Amino acid sequence: MSSSSSAIAAETRIGLVQLRVSNLKQSIRFYREIVGLQLIEEKQEGMAALGVPGAAKPLLQLREIPDAVPRPRRSGAGLYHFALLVPDRKSLGLSLRHLKSTGIHIGHSDHLVSEALYITDPDNNGIEIYSDRPRDTWQWDEQGRVQMGLDPIDQDGLLAEAGDTSWNGLPAGTTVGHIHLHVTELPTTEHFYIDVLGFDIVASMSNSALFISAGGYHHHIGLNVWAGVGAPLTPANAPGLDYYQIVLPSEAAQMAVFARLQAASVPLRTEGGTIITHDPSGIEVHFGI
Hints:
By secondary structure, the protein is an alpha+beta fold. It has helices spanning about 25-35, 90-100, 155-160, 185-195, 250-265; strands spanning about 15-20, 40-45, 45-50, 60-65, 80-85, 105-110, 115-120, 125-130, 175-180, 200-205, 210-215, 220-225, 240-245, 270, 275-280, 285-289. The mean pLDDT is about 95.
């Protein structure tokens, strides 16, 4: 773990994710009917905000781009998936049952710290829906690395947990638990997120992926080179990630990040109380409160 003076605030979390899509109406329908988000606002300029009951802010914004160029998976730096964290295992069971009823392709994995379902939206943007196991069951080694697995999930157990409760979309309390990114290469990415911002490395995979977090979470951000070392940023005229938000717990924590970005000569700007910069792959990152 980072020393307290250099670590990013422990309560740091992932906030809003904004995606580019090719057909806003189609994407709104998908995220409402398949994923289970609620439409909060549809703006005139080809934008929509979606969230869950009781949340003060949206979790997802969609921006339609005209004449979008279709994009295969793993074709450039940018989004691998964003992950919606549901509050309990029963909620994940309800999502599994609903997704199965739609006929969509569902990937799944038991990561030991969590159980996860994977789908893609109509533009190949990756989505994870997951629930965490209790923190006191997570296993850590002497190096501060968390043990994560890739086992098949217990689908029968999840479905049994759901019982005959009706599915009414993602429940109140659902958040963006983490985001997983394709990056151009790992050394400069590690320097930016660990040395400059102060996240901790909590897991790694044979020089191909890093998992990082604040405050002892299993991971807030995944970073991989599975689109190829040197992969360019997904172009702005293709569907993908516009930006994601890192939410800090206080103005002091936000100012600490601002100072560290400046000290490292990272170009940035501020807009309405948000710090906006780009990671070494060109992925836009917003730091808010």
